[in-house]
Design goal:
- The complex is a heterodimer.
- Chain A starts with a strand and ends with a strand.
- Chain A has 3 domains: 234 residues, Reverse transcriptase/Diguanylate cyclase domain (Alpha-Beta Plaits, 2-Layer Sandwich), CATH 3.30.70.270; 112 residues, Dna Ligase, domain 1, CATH 3.30.1490; 88 residues, no CATH class.
- Chain A is elongated.
- Chain A is of the alpha+beta class.
- In chain A, the strands form 5 sheets. In chain A, strands 15-16-17-18-19-20 form a 6-stranded antiparallel barrel. In chain A, strands 5-6-1-7-8 form a 5-stranded mixed β-sheet, with helices on both faces. Chain A has a 4-stranded antiparallel β-sheet with strand order 9-12-10-11, sandwiched between helices.
- Chain A contains 16 helices and 20 strands.
- Chain B folds into 2 domains: 66 residues, no CATH class; 155 residues, 3-Layer(aba) Sandwich (Rossmann fold).
- Chain B contains 11 helices and 12 strands.
- In chain B, 42% of the residues are buried.
- The chains are: A alpha+beta, B alpha/beta.
- Chains A and B meet through α15, β13, α16, β15 and β17 of A and α7, α8, β7, α9 and β11 of B.
Chain lengths: 550, 292
């Protein structure tokens, strides 16, 4: 058995997917170069208002209730990718029949997803979740499924052997429907299909039942092999092998804006929509993401008379759009959000992107938003009843982003000690509470279980002054006698005890060579005695108090 | 109607008395009562299930003093045996203060507790108000660096108020996030007059936030600033120098080595027991990383 998902009026559906609020309005899609723009597709509301494909844009603009949008090939390609994802989430054997049509083989799927009507309903729901209101049909052969999907709205399930009977009521035009073809292709096909339709019309053949009832020999004599092919289709008896495609694991969503966005709030609104669509697509393929790439195309300079976001979109002129688009900044603005673990939470992603854009604003009005997700397998974690608690990765990621916004990105994370004796030989890296650390700590975990009573003696810690405190050192007979720090009043006094010096040096082959003598000293201050580390920079000749032993 | 005694897992030592419709299943007193008195003498024929619930209710009422008893918090090791013996460990879901002057051993104690926590497999966080942690000291203390989140406050600002604000907001976020075994607030280099400006309400908020969690909230500071919000207050005494002064010592300075530091700790306050804690003092030594 085969299922077909068909999205009627695909150019309109693609635009409505990007802007769901347009579904309730009368919407017309136009294409062409100004001033020769023509209406290309319309939704039901526009149709009721008297707008038909082929009208000029100027004629359509006379309708005050109408919302006009330019045809967006980008939106159509994204919607098509979503359609493929929807089909791929049910079956690995999917044929990419047309931009608005996909066929999938349901062989063996009943044991996984239930009966055929249940599968068809699930397909319908999944497509709706992805923002595509389509029709779904299930039949014993691919072509019958396509015809049923194109001819009947909603969910249709045709039992094997009843294809001709079920398809009989459909008009013959359904055999020639290809609304997504480009203008050039359409012109080529139109001539052939128009002549065939005219012939059938002259014969009084209005529906598939009448076409199926025609004698085969007489039909082939008059219309040739094409006539027989059409009759086989009308009978639902055409059989062919499905040509499966492997849908690329590319999860990208984009939106072109009619007017530039300046504020973060409307941008967040659009990002939320894109993220929800991407996450729905990833979820349909049982995938998560570990990297989000945001690309913003910016306006090269600001206009003195540019319309604000609150302007009525209907009053916006296409010529102005073209004018702005020609002034797109040549270097787009990129931001990459790398996650420590695969995740799939659009709200979390939105918060992270908002925090990131707050910290790194684009710097110019935004004309186009492109968002791509790098797919990753969902993480599998085995929770343990007796394992100590650990932060939830999603919550932790958001918390870290918020803390980074407070204290700075480079000042939050975990530590990596570098293989050097240089002072401050460490670097900060991303903190994560995922499985990566689990592997590392498994050894320690087992060690802890085997040796629970391991007790270490306390190690005296050093508290550093960052930056080190410059000190004035008084020497008596070549020995340290008094230390004074002008920046920190408590770090001054007579040296009560001292140990050192210990000389160290390194990186002499580099510009950042260092050489120093270290002392451990005890000073008497107002609170009592304190131990400090005193450093003499041999290259610069300065004295510093580096920290206190605490 | 009858009364029943149930205890929740969250408050096992705090019984609650409430009434329930399904008396026969949850209230064993009904059975005992009906056995003790013949049914026909006590219970009207129109209501065979009735019983004298007044007596049963009185029998199950818990005294008010017992209701006030909260479950004792779980204690975790500080990593120093004598300190554990003094304090009983660090309480989970509570605020612990470690205060003392410079070189009194505050950081040593904090790192020791962090080391013990990370070795237990817990994730820990240090909110460092003055960016004073020394990474080699962390490694020497045996802390698993992968499990430690270090937040260094004070970027672009040396002002104590700004750093404190960052510390408090970060602590709020970490407590909200949850999942950490220990969160240490390092206020050791913040001047006491600045630290005292933290409103007491903030510490109350932290206490309330950490209470239902298994997190140990540890504050390291010069003087106690959280007041009654802290469940445990450990005060460390200033360093006593036992080494002879160099002038009197025949040993040259380069032949001397700082190998250990003596730490004196006093338990000032503990709310783990109902009776007030008696101040106790201990002394222990911490070794330097190079002492072996």
């Amino acid at each position: 058995m085969f299922a077909c998902i068909f999205v009627p009026n695909f150019p309109v559906a693609a635009v409505a997917r990007a802007e769901p609020e347009l579904r309730a309005l009368a919407l017309a899609i136009f294409e062409g170069k100004p001033p020769m723009e023509k209406v290309f597709a319309v939704n039901e509301g526009a149709n009721r208002a008297g707008i038909t494909p082929g009208m000029t844009k100027a004629q359509a603009e006379l309708c005050s209730e109408l919302t006009l949008r330019p045809r967006s090939l980008l939106q159509e390609s994204v919607a098509h990718a979503a359609l493929l994802d929807c089909a791929q989430s049910f079956s690995p054997c999917v044929e990419d029949a047309a931009a608005d049509t996909v066929i999938l083989d349901l062989a063996g799927m009943e044991s996984l997803f239930g009966s055929l009507p249940e599968i068809a309903r699930s397909l319908f729901r999944r497509a709706a979740e992805l923002g595509l209101d389509g029709s779904v049909a299930v039949a014993s052969n691919p072509d019958a499924a396509v015809l049923a999907a194109r001819g009947f709205s909603g969910v249709t399930v045709i039992s094997p052997g009843k294809e001709g009977e079920s398809l009989g009521s459909l008009p013959v035009e359904v055999l020639f429907t290809n609304p997504c073809a480009s203008v050039q292709k359409e012109n080529d096909q139109k001539k052939e299909s128009a002549s065939l339709l005219e012939t059938l019309d002259r014969w009084g053949v209005r529906n598939l039942q009448a076409l199926a009832a025609l004698p085969e020999i007489a039909l082939s004599e008059r219309l040739g092999q094409e006539g027989l092919r059409l009759q086989q289709l009308a009978r639902g008896a055409a059989s062919r092998t499905l040509v499966p495609v492997e849908a690329p694991a590319v999860f990208e969503e984009a939106v072109e804006l009619e007017y530039p966005i300046v504020l973060l709030e409307p941008l967040a609104f659009l990002l939320n929509r894109l993220l929800e669509q991407i996450c729905a697509r990833l979820a349909s393929r049982a995938l998560n993401t570990q990297e989000l790439r945001l690309t913003l195309e910016l306006e090269s300079f600001s206009f003195s008379n540019q319309p604000s976001a609150s302007n009525n979109p209907q009053s916006f002129r296409q010529s102005e759009i073209e004018n702005w688009k020609s002034k797109i900044c040549p270097i787009p603005f990129h931001r990459t959000l790398t996650l420590p673990l695969p995740m799939l939470d659009p709200k979390l992603f939105l918060k992270l992107l908002q925090l990131d854009l707050n910290a790194h604003p684009p710097g110019a009005p935004i004309l186009k938003i492109h968002l791509a997700a790098e797919p990753a397998r969902p993480r599998s974690a085995q929770g343990g009843l007796f394992l100590p608690p650990s932060p939830e990765p999603e919550k932790l990621e958001l918390t870290l982003a918020r803390i980074a916004a407070l204290v700075g990105e480079s000042r939050v994370g975990s530590l990596d000690l570098l293989d050097t004796h240089r002072d401050e030989g460490f670097r900060m890296r991303r903190f994560a509470s995922g499985t990566a650390q689990e592997k590392h700590s498994q050894k320690n975990q087992s060690r802890q279980i085997s040796e629970p009573a391991e007790e270490k003696s306390a190690i005296a810690a050093l508290r550093r002054f960052r930056p080190p405190l410059r000190a004035t050192v008084t020497l008596e007979n070549g020995e340290l006698a008094r230390v004074v720090c002008s920046k920190k009043k408590e770090v001054q006094g007579s040296v009560l005890w001292k140990a050192g010096p210990w000389r160290s040096s390194g990186d002499w082959w580099d510009r950042e060579a260092w050489s120093r003598d270290e002392w451990d000293i005890a000073l008497q201050n107002a609170e009592g005695i304190a131990l400090y580390r005193l450093v003499h920079d041999l290259l610069g000749g300065n004295w510093f108090v580096e920290g206190t032993y605490d | 109607m009858s009364s029943a005694v149930l205890s929740t897992s969250a408050a096992q030592s705090r019984p609650f008395v409430f009434q329930t419709e399904n008396e026969a299943e949850v209230c064993p007193q009904i059975e005992l009562f009906s056995e003790a008195r013949p049914l026909q003498r006590v219970v009207p024929t129109t209501f065979p299930g009735a019983f004298n619930f007044k007596d049963a209710k009185l029998a199950s009422v818990t005294s008010a003093s017992r209701l006030a008893v909260r479950p004792a918090p779980e204690m975790v090791s500080t990593g120093i045996a004598v300190m554990d013996a003094l304090t009983g460990g660090l309480p989970r879901g509570c605020l612990t203060e470690i205060c003392g002057p410079a070189s009194s051993g505050r950081s040593t104690l904090m790192l020791s507790a962090l080391s013990a926590a990370t070795r237990r497999g817990e994730y820990c966080a240090v909110v460092d108000a003055s960016d004073s942690l020394d990474p080699p000291s962390l490694a020497a203390a045996g802390i698993e660096l992968d499990r430690l989140l270090w937040v260094r406050c004070g970027e672009n600002s040396r002002e104590a108020e700004h750093r404190l604000e960052q510390l408090l907001r970060t602590t709020d976020l970490l407590l909200e996030s949850g999942g950490f075994g220990m969160i240490a607030l390092d206020l050791g280099d913040v001047p006491p007059q600045a630290a005292r400006r933290i409103p007491l309400a903030t510490w109350f908020r932290f206490r309330r936030a950490v209470e239902p969690t298994p997190t140990v909230l540890l504050a390291v500071e010069r003087q106690s600033i959280a007041g009654s919000c802290s469940s445990l207050l450990i005060k460390l005494a200033s360093l006593k120098l036992n080494a002879p002064e160099n002038k009197a010592s025949p040993t040259p300075t380069h032949a001397q080595l700082l190998t250990e530091v003596e730490i004196t700790a006093e338990l000032v306050r503990s709310r783990m027991d109902r009776k007030p804690v008696r101040s106790a003092e201990i002394t222990f030594t911490s070794k330097t990383a190079w002492a072996g």
